[in-house]
Amino acid sequence: MQDITGVRVVSAAATVAALVFGVQGLSGGLPSLFGASRPVWFAATVVGGLAAALVLVVALRARDRRATAAAVSMLAFAVAWFVPGPVGSALSFVAQAALVAFGLLTVWAVRGVQRVLGWVVTTAAALWFVVGLLTQTVFVPGASQELLVVVFSIPVLLQAVAYLATAVLVAAPLLRTVGAGAGRLWDSAEVR
Q: What gap in Å lies between CA 76 and CA 91, rounded to an integer?
């Protein structure tokens, strides 16, 4: 990915895919805030899946492990949304594991704020897996309806945190351009 325009296009595609799945997590955890219908989420998931497929193809050609892990996570999650049953659950686990891998690769590769976001992605994705597994396997007798609503909202909110932090990380090439432009404007300003 030597061409800067290509990097920006792939970064934009990855950002779109991560935002789609982050907002889906928010809508699952906070349905009163997002009243989108099923056809809207269907279309958004298709767009997110296509964007993830584009990122995966480019990442594999460039041998970029971080981008590959992020793309595998987003593509597996998109496909899992359409496939019911055990195959969909397995794809969801693949998405979570790939997101943990993306977070860890980010932690090892970068410094500063991006490293902190890498830890956020890793922790949220790992907790998403563990809490999701517990909600599917552990039965709490006598639990009230309100408690169950809260318990089942936790995994999707962790999904939202993981994918929204991923969106910020994959948007870095786009944000660097904005930061450079703002820096030039600041340097050329007569009044500070």
A: 5
Question: How many other CB atoms sit within 10 Å of the CB of residue 122?
Answer: 21
What is the amino acid identity at position 166? T
Residues in Cβ contact with 91 at an 8 Å cutoff, skipping those fewer than 6 apart: 76, 77, 79, 80, 83
- Give the pLDDT confidence of 72-104 residue by residue, as tens digits: 999 999 999 888 888 988 999 999 999 999 999
pTM of the model: 0.83
56 is written with which tokens? Answer: 């995966």
Total count of residues recorded for the chain: 192
Nearest C-alpha neighbor of 41 from the set 56, 54, 26: 26
Q: Are 117 and 168 in contact (CB under 8 A)?
A: yes
For 111, list phi and psi in degrees, rounded to 5. Answer: -125, 170
Tokens of 46: 């298709």
For residues 126 and 141, give the distance between their C-alpha atoms in angstroms, rounded to a whole number: 26
Interval 126-185: pLDDT, tens? 999 999 888 878 877 777 888 887 888 888 889 999 999 999 988 887 777 776 777 777
Q: Which residue, among 152, 115, 114, has the nearest Cα to 131 in the 3D structure?
A: 152
Question: Sign (positive/negative) of CA torsion 1, 108, 166, 43?
Answer: positive
Return the structure tokens found at 143.
Answer: 């639990």
Q: Backbone phi, then psi, for 77, in 5-degree steps?
A: -70, -40
